[in-house]
Amino acid sequence: PDTTFSDDPVRMMRAIRFAAQLGFKIDKVVMESISRQVKRIEIVSWERITAEFYKILLAEQPSVGLDMLQHVGLMEIIFPEVAEMSGMEQPAEWHHKDIFYHTLQVVDNIAPETDNPDLRFAALVHDIGKPRTRRLHRKKGWTFHGHDAVGAKMIDRVAARMKLSNATREYLKKLTTIHLRPISLAKEGVTDSAVRRVMVAAGEEVDDLLTLCRADITSKNPRLVKKYLGNFDRVEKMMQDVEERDAFLAFQSPVRGDTIMKECHISPGPLVGKIKTAIENAILDGEIENSYEAAYDYFLKIKDEIINDLTSDSDSSTINKAPKA
Fold first, then answer.
1. Which of 17, 30, 239, 299 is the most exposed place for a label (fewest CB within 10 A)?
2. What is the pLDDT of residues 301-311, one digit of tens each?
3. pTM of the entire structure?
4. What are phi and psi of 163, to 5 degrees?
């Protein structure tokens, strides 16, 4: 094995992939050889490493291969953001105490639900921000405030290193950023506007988001599992019942930027975005209908107030006023 792995170090990953795919055990001598030569993987192109990594993720039980990568030391080199989760405790009520093994369980949970390799990848990276945000609270224990946003930023570096496509990078960032939001929705009395906001944030990935959130429930307490899965059933039903569901999947203000600039006599800048956001919020909150006519009338009503507010808070360069035609 020393000669084999030295000749082509990607074979170390391939051995682990075969074991994960076929249910084999790797011979002790071979495992020891991999452990000795893990640094050799650094001479392999990232395209080949990423291809093998995706194949491991597509195994029937991906955790088998991922755990092996961690055990022999390859994970620390090819995916240090995942490797550093190992040994880090978190509250035991909802998850495994160890962030790494909780993550592997999430990947295994999602595997029967999807053959989409990027969704399985999202399950692997959804909590990579936890080690960076882990704090010990005197009363609450371990907390991970903001790990969703931190994790999303980390994905930029991961995607660049592993040569992921731009589409995959943005997909992973989106699901990582919003993976906690359906949890907050899974409560009694949630409003239609709150559901709409999650739908808008998720866009076409709303179903993938819910699949990820279901997989993220790894509690060993069957009562809690039943409760949360039941809550997700209610959230999904609400999403289906919300009027104009398809319109909200790719939602944006019916009044476009060029119309706003023409009516307000302004150039492109923050003011245009502020007006569009105000229109979108009014639709999401149910104040006005999701139609061009209603949005345009609302725009005419609020534009002067927003312009005056921004003018009083900013210098003239922020407004970027354009000369009237």
1. 30
2. 988 888 887 76
3. 0.77
4. 60, 40
